[in-house]
Each structure stands twice: as structure tokens, then as C-alpha cells.
Amino acid sequence: MKRIAICGEIFSSNLGDGVIFESIKYLLSRNNVEAVPIDLSGRNCYKNEQKSNDYRSNSIRKRLQPLIRSSSTLRRSYTMLKWYSLSKKEYITHWEDVILSCDAVIIGGGQLFTDIDFGFPPKIYEIYNISKRFDKPLAIYGCGVDEPWGLFAKYMYEKILGYAKYISVRDYYSQNIFLKSSVSCITVNVHPDPGFMSGQVYNEHVQKSSTDTIGFNIQPVSHFRAFVPSLKKITNEEYVNFWVQLIKGAYYGGKTPIILTNGDEDDFKQAQFISSELSKQGVQIKVLERAISPIQLINQLRDIPILISTRMHAGIIAYGFGSEVLAICWDKKVKNVWATIQEEKNVINANVLLRTSPWPYFHSLMKQQNLKDDNQLVSIHESICLSMNNCLISLGML
């Protein structure tokens, strides 16, 4: 059996990345190809990780963080120093062993081709260097892309684009960024995010819960402050009150609310706090346990008929199982990914968080949702599968 190394944030506690890997693994298995994971952050399995409680490390980190966060140059310098002095030495031997044992390399999927504080560029560039050294063909599959890129990131990413045998992205915004590069004569294909395959990967024939059940997928307010300019000054109290009023409205409107997260510890803490605030107001809402593996997340999402999501892949996974989804857009990638499948109507502007009585608005949107055409999911699956077949042909695997 042929083997392909798959590079991404595979074992992240944000389990959307794990579902992407499982989807790619499934697509490869259909062609009798084994997927071998390479986690770009050096993890080797899913773990029930807790934030460090070491007093000294936390104390030092707390003292340094305000200084580092205050300057883009300091943030990038810190990330670069950490990679080249520590992480690279730690990761590279394992990456070399995996790539040497495989027939090809795929970078994908997830929001990888970005330059936030120089996090991904040197890691992906090292994957390219190892692949080239061992004469392994490389492809980019189903990734998200964002700009701006610094000079070093631009140099690294364009080297990778020039070497890649096949390139695909999950939205047209990402395609346009790649096509603007100085690499000549590249073809950048677009297909839906691999996560939309979840219903196929994990058996799509499931019995949905009562139609009165509604899921609320929650992440921390800090993400909205960082990515939505109009919400830069939203307070914790305003954010919590939005969810409390929304969930209370659903509860008193005859729905059965369930709160869940994508597995990240901070997401789960935010969900628990919102639940505790609801409890103080006499509304007892179940918070599903924090998932620590993709299959746990799948089992939580697969039978929820309606989902209001903040994490992008919670919505993608639920949609893959035929659920109705309303996705709150905290990053442009959310809108871009849903636009690929012509479902922009599922995306809600993040300023909705400023509503003090949000349930009537969401309820009206839910009533406007049309029953999903099964042929639409079939078309999405066909597009993803066709792109993977083309990828494997370009890599010489078919």
C-alpha cells in the first residue's frame, strides 16, 4: 500500500482539524493509500491537555505577554526565536522519518497558509525542504489562505507553491491570494472544505434528535475581539448576556437547548460559565462534556437537527450530517467557506452579538431555512472526491 504524509494541525484540541485529517484519510483509503499524520505543532496524539499550572512558568509568561503582545515585531521575533532555537530541533527528526517512509506529501487542510506572527511559514517551509531533499512529490490540498504575508513568509510560501505538483484550496478568496503570488503558471483548484465529508466518513445514516433540540456551539469572546473590529470593545458581560438571552429564548420558546464546544479547553470554560449564569436565572441547560477526539465531537454533533455555531468546523460537520446550521461569522474564512457551497445565507454577521434580545431574530432565520436537498450534499462530496483523485494523479499515486 502506498503512503502519503498528511501535514496539518492534526492533533489540535480544536478538533475541527482532526476531522479534516480523518476526512482526508477516508478519501485516500478509497484509493488504497494510507494517510500518515504529521502535526505541525509536534503533537503525536489527541490529549486531554490542561493549561499549565506551573507557577513560575505562568508568572514569567504573564509578565512577558503584555510586552510581546504590544508589538508585532516582538511577537514575530519571539515566534521565530522559539522555532529556530527549540521547536525545529525537536520536530525535524520525526518529520524526516515519516516523509522518508512515505511516497508523497500533502499539506492540508485547515487555515495553514497564513502569517500570523510567523507561526506557520517556517514549519511548512521545513516540510517542503525535507520533501525536496528526499525527492518526494508534494501537494497542497483543501487549505485556507489569508494575507498579509511578510517578506520571509512570502519567500517561503512561493517556494512551496513552485514545487507543488497539485494545489487546491477551500474557497475563492484563498485561490485569489495564491494566484497573486509571483509564481508563474500555477493552477489553483477550488473545492469545498474536506470537513463536509463528515457524514460519509462517519456513516451518514443517523437518527436525528427531536426537532425541538437545538445546539449552541460556543467559543471565547477574545476571538471576536481579535478578528471583528466592531467588537473590539465588547465586554465579557455583553458576550455572556447574548448567549444567556439567546438560550433562554430558545428554552422558553419550547426548544431543548444543548451547549457544546469543539474541544478546546478555553471554549469549554466559556460554555460552563454561560451555563452557570443560566442556572442562576433558573434555566438548567446541559453542557456536553469536552470532546478530546474527533469521534467524540462527531457523536455530539451528528444527531443535532439545528446548530448555531461559532467554530467553523462545528457548523461544517453538522451540515455534513444534514443538519440546519446558522454560523456566526467571527472571521472572514467562515463566510468564504460557506460561499464555496453557495450557502452564504447560513452565515450571520458577528454584530448580532450586540443584540440584547437575540432569540426572535434567530427564530425568524430558522423558520426561513429550507429543507436541504440531498443532491446538494452529493454534489459537495463529488467535488471533494474529484479534487482528491486529481491530486493523487498529479502525485503519481493513481
Give structural attributes.
alpha/beta; 398 residues; seven-stranded parallel sheet; six-stranded parallel sheet; single chain; Rossmann fold; 2 domains
Commentary on this structure:
- The protein is an alpha/beta fold.
- It has two domains: 2-199 and 379-394, Rossmann fold, CATH 3.40.50; 206-372, Rossmann fold (3-Layer(aba) Sandwich).
- The chain is built from 15 helices and 13 strands.
- Strands 1, 2, 3, 4, 5, 6 and 7 form a seven-stranded parallel β-sheet that branches. Strands 10-9-8-11-12-13 form a six-stranded parallel β-sheet, with helices on both faces.
- β1 (2-8), α1 (16-29) and β2 form a beta-alpha-beta unit.
- α3 runs parallel beside α4 (121-133), α4 (121-133) runs parallel beside α5 and α9 (236-252) packs across α10 (265-280).
- The longest helix is centred in the N-terminal third of the chain and has 30 residues, at 72-101.
- The radius of gyration is 21 Å and the shape is globular.
CATH class of the largest domain: Alpha Beta
Summarize the amount of helix as a percent range: 40-55%
**Largest sheet, described in full?**
7 strands, parallel
- By DSSP, the count of extended strands is 13
Short précis:
The protein is an alpha/beta fold and 398 residues long. It contains 15 helices and 13 strands.
